[in-house]
Design brief:
By secondary structure, the protein is α/β, with parallel strands linked by helices. It folds into 2 domains: 135 residues, Aspartate Aminotransferase, domain 1 (Alpha-Beta Complex); 248 residues, Aspartate Aminotransferase, domain 2 (3-Layer(aba) Sandwich). The chain contains 15 helices and 12 strands. The model has no long low-confidence stretch (mean pLDDT 96). The chain binds pyridoxal-5'-phosphate. The site of pyridoxal-5'-phosphate has 13 residues, from helix 6.
């Protein structure tokens, strides 16, 4: 018994790093002083500062009938949305995935809903979720909200390659210690680093997961693909990492967290999905049972207009083709900003982490006051231990040379 107004499990809740709050502060500072550079926002903007909106999305939204706009969304999604999501996510690997796996789609409130449902249902309270040491900070809060913690492995080795051996060491240690391994990886286009893993690196990680599963330890892979459509490699290769899934041990549950926010610029609509995959029917029965329950118990159902719009784009070949062309344009916007940033960083001698795609580039720092120092120079970024995240998704080309100089001065 305590005399606190909040329950005892909520006493320790404190938002240490609130990305949305920092973004709001940056926006307010820029409104007062337009020379402020706001590199906090994980949202793709055009160079004039307006949101990168897709015509295919706008057009679909405007054409929705009452049924598609206003009624409750089905808990398991419309056919267009759920089948379309599998098609979109796995691309040319779809047939192989459907042949080898039981697959089930559960629509959620954004990728965040997919992450929180999965983290909540597939761990015992008090356990730890394994993530790399550079991570999107809400992972910590989502884990804490589920009475869990996080444990990290070093993302890079000394040569800035993905640190497979530290992953292996930590994964095996954690699996042995708690009799379960729940591994959460944001790839491709990692937030906050910009890392994109190769298919071979995925194969190697899955090899480690299989070794653990072979000891009859429950293994869950939660694969956060929020930025999958912003890889810099050719589009037809953008789903190749999923060929590594074919090696997964039948006991493993993989959950792909799909987000409609970045791909469709539908951030505020709150649409995403848990896409569960396993070679084992009993594992998938469990996934479906607890997933459906949690949707009803936590948020009941998701945004119907967003489901309708995305479902329409997935299912209408002309619209889909137009949308793909618009996405290619969005990637070009990012590509030109990244190229300019890298050019100036190389000139100034500013080191940055290897970038394969996405909204962010990462710069390591030993400056513990980096956030305050950059703000004093009119630059807002998201700072985390040892790293700053620079959202080139929302910085315009003109600002980049000055941004690089200010970063170089302070890191
Ligand atoms: N995962 C990562 C790495 C993200 O950066 C985000 C959003 O910023 C999400 C998941 C979830 O996005 P949403 O809940 O808007 O779909």
């Amino acid at each position: 018994m305590t005399n606190h107004i909040v329950g005892s499990h909520a006493l320790t809740k404190h938002m240490e790093s609130n990305i949305l709050k920092t973004s709001q502060e940056a926006k307010a500072a820029k409104a007062k002083n337009p020379s402020v550079i706001d590199a906090t926002v994980g949202q793709l903007n055009r160079d004039n500062g307006t949101l990168f909106r897709y015509v295919a999305v706008e057009r679909s939204l405007n054409e929705l009938n009452d049924q598609e706009m206003y009624v409750y969304a089905p808990v398991n999604g419309t056919k267009n949305f759920s089948e379309g999501a599998i098609d979109w996510v796995f691309g040319r690997n779809k047939d192989a995935i459907l042949k080898n796996f039981q697959v089930n789609v559960i629509p959620t409130t954004g990728g965040s809903g997919a992450l929180s449902n999965t983290i909540y249902n597939f761990n015992d309270f008090g356990q730890k979720v394994l993530i790399p040491n550079y991570y999107w900070t809400p992972y910590e809060n989502i884990a804490e909200e589920a009475n869990l913690g996080v444990e990290t492995f070093r993302m890079y080795d000394d040569d800035y390659n993905f640190n497979l051996s530290d992953f292996e060491r930590k994964a095996k240690e954690l699996a042995t210690r708690q009799g379960r391994l729940f591994f959460l990886m944001n790839d491709p286009c990692n937030n906050p680093t910009g890392l994109c893993l190769s298919t071979d690196q995925w194969r190697a990680m899955i090899g480690v997961l299989n070794e653990i599963a072979a000891k009859d330890i429950p293994v869950i892979l939660l694969h956060d693909i929020a930025y999958i459509d912003f890889q810099m490699k050719p589009e037809e290769q953008s789903r190749d990492i999923f060929t590594s899934y074919l090696d997964l041990d039948p006991r493993i549950l993989a959950v792909v967290a799909f987000s409609g926010s970045k791909t469709f610029s539908m951030y505020g609509f709150r649409i995403g999905a848990q896409i569960g995959l396993s070679k084992s029917k009993s594992v998938m029965d469990e996934f479906r049972r607890v997933g459906d329950y949690s949707v009803r118990a936590r948020f009941s159902s998701v945004s119907r207009p967003a489901m309708s719009v995305i479902g329409r784009i997935f299912a209408t070949p002309d619209l889909r083709t137009c949308f793909r062309a618009e996405l290619a344009e969005a990637r070009e916007v990012l590509r030109s900003r990244i190229a300019l940033f890298q050019h100036h960083a190389d000139l100034e001698g500013l080191r940055y982490l290897p970038y394969g795609g996405g909204f962010f580039i990462g710069v390591e720092t030993k400056n513990c006051r980096i956030f305050e120092d950059l703000v004093a120079d009119g630059v807002y970024v998201i700072a985390m231990p040892g790293l700053i995240r620079i959202a080139l998704s929302s910085v315009n080309l003109e600002e980049i040379p000055r941004l690089v100089k200010i970063l170089k001065k302070n890191v």
